[in-house]
Amino acid sequence: MSDFIPVASTSEVSDPGSALVEVDDRLVVLIHAAGHWYALDDVCTHDGGPLSEGPVDPDRGTIACPRHGTKFDVKTGAAVTMPATKPTVAHEVKVENDSVLVKLNDNP
């Protein structure tokens, strides 16, 4: 199991907003929404689109794939709209002082 790895400072990602970060050679979208932090694999399970380039909806708690509009739950990675039917992987996030840290989860 991996450890928490610092990936950004809290001032680097607006609320709502997202940023593409690399954690142990894995691309992850770091999401700041409604005062909370989340991290998902930066891949739409429909066709591999980059979630980091899609809009965050803090009211619904989703991020949308820019290619076909599939929305994923920022907390769980679940696909909540079509055309994707499989979840993307959600990772653990914690904030210490002004650093945002991510711990990879290999289980979808």
Rg value: 13 Å
Average residue-wise pLDDT: 95
SS-derived structural category? mainly beta
Order of neighbouring strands in the sheet with most strands: 1-9-8-4-3-2
Strand content: 35-45%
Helix content: under 10%
| Shape verdict | globular
Q: Which stretches of 5+ consecutive residues score pLDDT under 50?
A: none
Secondary structure elements and pairings:
Layout: E1 5-9, E2 17-23, E3 26-33, E4 36-41, E5 56-57, E6 62-64, E7 71-73, E8 90-96, E9 99-103
Antiparallel strand pairs: 1-9, 2-3, 3-4, 4-8, 5-6, 6-7, 8-9
What does this structure look like?
The chain has strands spanning 5-9, 17-23, 26-33, 36-41, 56-57, 62-64, 71-73, 90-96, 99-103. The protein is built from no helices and nine strands. A six-stranded antiparallel beta sheet has the order 1-9-8-4-3-2, with no helix packed on it. The protein has a three-stranded antiparallel beta sheet with strand order 5-6-7, with no helix packed on it. 0% of the residues lie in helices and 43% in strands. The model has no long low-confidence stretch (mean pLDDT 95).
